[in-house]
Amino acid sequence: MATKIYHDSDADLNILKGKKIAVIGYGNQGRAQALCLHDSGLDVVVGARRNGESWGQASSDGLKVAEIPAAVKGADVVMVLLPDEVQPGVYKQQIAPNLKEGAALEFAHGFAITFKCIAPPAKNDVIMVAPKSPGRMVRQTYLEGFGVPSLIAVQQDATGKAKQVALALAKGLGSTKAGVLETDFREEATSDLFGEQAVLCGGVTALIEAGFETLVKAGYKPEIAYFEVLHELKLIVDLIQAGGMMHMWDSVSNTAEFGGLTRRDAVINDESKKAMKKILEDINSGKFAKEWSEEWKVDLKNMKRLEKEESEKQVEAVGKDIRALFERK
Ligand code: NDP
Ligand code: MG
Questions:
Q1: Which residues of the chain form beta strands (DSSP E)?
Q2: What is the CB neighbour count within 10 angstroms for residue 72?
Q3: Which residues contact 313 (CB under 8 A, 6 or more apart)?
Q4: Which of 152, 175, 195, 255 makes an SS bond possible with 166, Cβ 3.0 to 4.6 Å?
């Protein structure tokens, strides 16, 4: 493999010893990362709002908690682990005025920096450590004595130590046990958006729903349709993730293999690739970022409408009933 993978021996936790690390936000990533860094022997303070849920959660988890401005004051590393749409406002009002010169501003996703929702001062390091997993997995894998793979990036190296700090944080999360790859903010942000829009979150749900609707419209029982196009998806994806495409093809019947290989182009084809290319262009041109930041201003009104429509789909109702039947008591 051409890309260098960083492991434990490439990172030195000592450069963070005695430094103050402020973790701003205590949600999916914030909680997992704050706890891992704390368990790795680092001095962590969580920045939260006093009237929010996170405040009590972080204190009952045994961590130091402070309001965001106080957490940022004097911190050597400020980890911005707030929802992407909240970051610009909190940064401007509570982080920027209190940010120490030379401190590292850290992100878990390149969105805010790439699309210039946040423009940090030149005197600060700007780095990213992006675990390629939901927070829960970050924590669980750490507790198992390992870590999830992460991407690191340096956008601004004011101190000359930015990359070492990013690697040390990745080590504190356990990620250097699994492997850490270097990227840049733009590559991470745009590829991540593309993946979630075209393939993972957007693509997969559209594929499932199209398959479900086709079967149900043709008169099949919704329960049967659910099993065929949704329930079994995980089994197939697990095979692909564990051993690649050929491992999956080898594990299903020859009938499934022949049918799948001869019919799939009818569903996903040059037309779909053209649409994917357009999705990528809109991401790279900033069109998507603009649309998404417009959405913040209307309090996610359109997203909430789409979310409601999605929740009312038949596949959701059927799924709820079926999953309840098979729940282990
Ligand atoms: P969450 O939605 O889980 O963040 C919730 C946290 O943000 C809570 O602590 C909440 O506090 C706080 N918060 C929300 N609004 C405000 C506000 N106005 N002022 C102060 N605090 C606020 O975020 P994620 O962990 O999902 O995402 C964080 C970053 O990590 C993002 O950049 C995301 O792209 C990235 N990322 C996320 C992954 C994931 O698994 N979800 C994977 C990889 C990267 P309170 O309890 O007070 O409401
Ligand atoms: Mg992603």
A1: 5-6, 20-24, 43-48, 64-67, 77-80, 104-107, 125-131, 150-156, 180-182
A2: 26
A3: 209
A4: 152
From the CA of 87, how far away is ligand 1's center (Å)? 9
Closest ligand 1 atom to residue 136 Cα is: 40
Read off the tokens for 283: 């991401």
Torsions phi, psi for 53 (to 5 deg)? -70, -35
AA identity, residue 48? A
Q: Which residues contact 173 (CB under 8 A, 6 or more apart)?
A: 33, 36, 37, 40, 129, 131, 138, 142, 147, 148, 150
Buried b (16+ CB within 10 A) or exposed e, 205-239: eeebbebbeebbeeeeebeebbeebbeeeeeeeeb
pLDDT digits (tens, 9 = 90+) for 132-147: 999 999 999 999 999 9
Going by the DSSP 8-state scheme, the letter that residue 63 receives in this structure is: -
**Residues flanking ligand 1, CB < 6 Å:** 25-30, 48-49, 52-54, 81-84, 86, 90, 108-109, 130-131, 134-135
pTM: 0.92
Both structure tokens of 258: 């022949």
